[in-house]
Amino acid sequence: MGYDVHITRRDEWWDDDGPRISPEEWLAVVDADPDLRHDGFAETPTPDGSTIRVEHPGLTVWTAHPDQANFSDRVWLSFHEDDGEIVVKAPDDHVLAKMAEIAAQLDANVQGDEGERYD
After folding, report:
1. H helices within the chain, ranges in order?
2. Which of 92, 105, 108, 114 is surrounded by the most beta carbons within 10 Å?
3. Residue partners of 91: CB distance under 8 A and separation at least 6
4. Rounded Cα gap, residues 16 and 78, in angstroms
5. What whole-number distance in Å separates Cα of residue 67 and Cα of residue 75?
6. Are 28 and 35 a contacting pair, CB within 8 Å?
7. C-alpha to C-alpha distance for 54 and 12, rounded to whole angstroms
């Protein structure tokens, strides 16, 4: 299990009620950003040479992380339609900055699992 950071319009990401980001709004942001690629799956190699693949219709890749050697095609933003939010596991400062940029476009905020806000 990892630490999640959320792009949400709700006052607190865990709130049951409140405004949601629609799939259409999310895909419009992705389509307008050449550094985002909507794949619908995530893959990563394992130390033994095999590959782990997870399929989820909301998975999008950020392809422009400054540390390409370690992060190329491995920074995944996961749109959760039921919650109307985008989630990233264990983002570094570069990913948090990208998330803040995306949140601004969606009139949303960036919030960690424990409620802390990122601008």
Report:
1. 23-32, 68-71, 93-105
2. 108
3. 5, 75, 99
4. 19
5. 11
6. no
7. 27
Residue-level pLDDT at 70: 63
Amino acid at site 119: D
**Of 119, 107, 105, 109, whose CA–CA distance to 32 is shortest?**
105
In whole angstroms, what is the distance from residue 85 CA to residue 78 CA? Answer: 8
**What confidence tens digit (pLDDT) does each residue in 10-40 have?**
999 999 999 999 999 999 999 999 999 999 9
Say which amino acid occupies 70: N
Q: Rounded to an integer, what distance in angstroms lies between the CA atom of residue 22 and that of residue 56?
A: 16
Reference 72, options 81, 63, 85; nearest CA is 63
Q: Which tens digits make up the pLDDT trace of 70-82?
A: 655 578 999 999 9
Global pTM reads: 0.89
Measured between alpha carbons, how far is residue 10 from residues 75, 90, 110 in Å?
24, 21, 10
